[in-house]
């Protein structure tokens, strides 16, 4: 069932129940969102604020590889300057007199004298990606305390870490700053996406997440254009800091998702957030809004309880596992192709811009495809494009034109996989654990980044064959996912796939503290009766 058909199954959002004193009563947030839609300004504010926050943390991610490029050098032999290799400089005793090309003069390699210390240079990147493992903690905290507070925390933490990096003068301090930038980066990544998914009406859940993911490609393209000028790394960090400060402005007009409060049973806060949205949207709210939350809608709350539901509930754990494996494979292919950009010939910056254009096209087309075809078929086609790209890259490895063409096809497929998985996360997982489940998926992407490099170092033949095999396996995995749909029956909305919701409800009952109290009371009563 495609998203278009799922919207038909979901029913008419305008169908509301009559409340007291001529008010309207909603027991489902999707219908409430449609009632306060009005001119629809708020969803664009959320999209803009989340996209800019998403873009702010992407700047450093895409800048880091350029900061660690080993610059070209020239050596002085017999009074003449000529181009020399790393071997000529680092493995010659005594070292010859050498200098760097002017366009590569200022980066981490030259700043901290790491030209012959490759293991220390790679340490900066490794520590940064190790910091991104914080997504496992941050995403679950967002399920407990809200998406917007964690997003703001990530923005401020990222700005502070970048500011400290600008003023650092030692390699050790640069490594520490790199870790914290990675730590707060994932807070921006996961929470910006969850905030959009939870704050927009149901009919936009396929397109808006895709528009958010475009900011990834825009950030990659912007950094490539900046680096073409040979900009100094401290200047680039100052630009990142200033952009992050400016990008905080839209967050002032945003509020926590009403759906988040609603599924925690905090109806008063959810109602206040709805009134704020209605005011911005200039919606006609002549009838007072009331919310009704049944026991079915109040999902599990509490950090430990959420982890238990995700890890100990076998059905939910299996869905998270398949979801994470698909993201792992997609990102391994994505980064394996990215690592080959330097070896394709031509201008490296132009290659990066072309691949970024392919990513933008992938986000737009994959998001729209959910309105036309089944989501499982869309994912299979995406894995197929990724396989074609990788296999074609191996065949045309020595052709500078066709190699970049097949790299673009591979990027098209791997980016579409990421975009589809992020978009469908709201249809696969309930709101209560959506952040934690997406965090597990993002953690899998970090593993994909780390594993792609050793596979790349095995050689082009091994890399292409391994990625092709993984892509074929990934194309079969979508049929193991259960995508939840909604249907309208007598004025209420409930899940068409009752098995998932039944399992979740059962898990909530098992892991809730009330269950333990009631259970112990019943045991005490039985003991008294026996006496």
Q: What are the SSEs and their pairings?
A:
Elements: H1 3-10, E1 17-18, E2 24-26, H2 29-35, H3 41-67, E3 73-77, E4 80-84, H4 86-90, E5 97-100, H5 108-111, H6 118-131, H7 135-145, H8 147-167, H9 171-199, H10 208-228, H11 233-247, H12 258-262, H13 267-281, E6 289-291, H14 303-312, H15 314-339, H16 348-369, H17 375-395, H18 400-428, H19 431-457, H20 460-476, E7 486-489, E8 492-495, H21 498-511, H22 513-530
Parallel strand pairs: 2-6
Antiparallel strand pairs: 1-2, 3-4, 3-5, 7-8
Helix pairs in contact: 3-9, 3-10, 3-11, 6-9, 7-8, 7-9, 7-19, 8-9, 8-11, 9-19, 10-16, 14-15, 14-19, 15-18, 15-19, 15-20, 16-18, 17-18, 17-20, 18-19
Report on this structure:
The chain has 531 residues and is mainly alpha-helical. The protein contains 22 helices and 8 strands. The chain has helices at residues 3-10, 29-35, 41-67, 86-90, 108-111, 118-131, 135-145, 147-167, 171-199, 208-228, 233-247, 258-262, 267-281, 303-312, 314-339, 348-369, 375-395, 400-428, 431-457, 460-476, 498-511, 513-530, and strands spanning 17-18, 24-26, 73-77, 80-84, 97-100, 289-291, 486-489, 492-495. It has a 3-stranded mixed sheet with strand order 1-2-6. α7 crosses α9. It is globular and about 95 Å long. The N and C termini lie far apart (58 Å). Residues 6-16 and 486-531 have low confidence and may be disordered.
